[in-house]
Amino acid sequence: MARIGVLTGGGDSPGLNAVIRAIVRKGLNVHGHEFFGFTYGWAGVLSNEGIVLDHQSTRGILHRGGTILGTSRTNPFKQGGPGADGVRASLEARAIDILIPIGGEDTLGVANRLSEAGIPIVGVPKTIDNDLAGTDFTFGFQTAVQIATDAIDRLHTTAESHNRVIVVEVMGRHAGWIACYAGLAGGADVILVPERPFDIEEVCERVRNREQSGRTFSIVVVAEGATPKDGDVVSEHSGGATDAFGHERLGGIAVTLEREIEERTGFESRMTILGHVQRGGTPLAYDRVLGTRFGVAAADAADEGSFGQMVALRGTEIELVPLSDALAEPKLLDPRLFETAEVFFG
Ligand code: F6P
Q1: 129 C-alpha vs ligand 1 centroid, how far in Å?
Q2: Spatial contact of 302 and 100, defined as CB atoms under 8 Å apart
Q3: What is the reported pTM?
């Protein structure tokens, strides 16, 4: 019997509770381990706060968004932070043998450093952005895509009725997966992604082309991390703020696009920033199933002692991949998918 700590770090992602439930259900019922959930990511580890995870505390959470453990972007390795020694001290104080962090590049980056320092770790990948290498998909992505697609469908109606250009900003810091999937599904006329810096004149040209062929409205989908050619990420909202991992707070490229498109084309333009709406609410069935499969596999990996690895979806199978492989580079948008979307641009 082992004592296993669980935490959720970084942005919340629909399906997190499915993972927690699955880890605990498999680990308790089949392997006979005990579980403790640290609250608010690495913050809970450092302050040694949390809750016992058992049948009672993980009941009725499968369909709930967010995370019952809470989350944060706390970084134990930030300058002056307690580092691996601080984490080890907390784990010892609670007699935790193994840690299962559920998170994205930052949370798993910390996990990898702790693993290198000798702490037994099994990671679970999480991000709505779907930009973690080593896994074909992360849970939460499909839900975010559906929310964005529903929003595009609704905005289509207004764009069409008012003869407007509507710019829809979706999440996607390094990669345009949400923009491309939702743009494809929602019939976007232009999709702008971080992987392909855009030329504002080209965007306007597509909008003009549509007008000339009798279509009096356009939908432009833009990922928050998209940049103009020869430009930096335009963040209208951050005021220069960064998180504990040094990431700038994004949001607002759509504000610039709305203004530029209207000024350059003369067409009335509006923008909508979907923001955290994409991370909230009920997970789709796909994300509940993927989260559950990840959770069961993570409990098995912990039981077998497969440390320094994370669970991953490869094709249709759940496999284990070294944490270091997953963290080397972000998983950027498949160019073939973007080329498919481009077929339908204005
Ligand atoms: O990493 C997921 C993500 O949704 C990014 O797309 C976005 O830049 C970031 O989280 C925003 O997170 P928050 O506003 O919660 O700090």
Answers
A1: 8
A2: yes
A3: 0.96
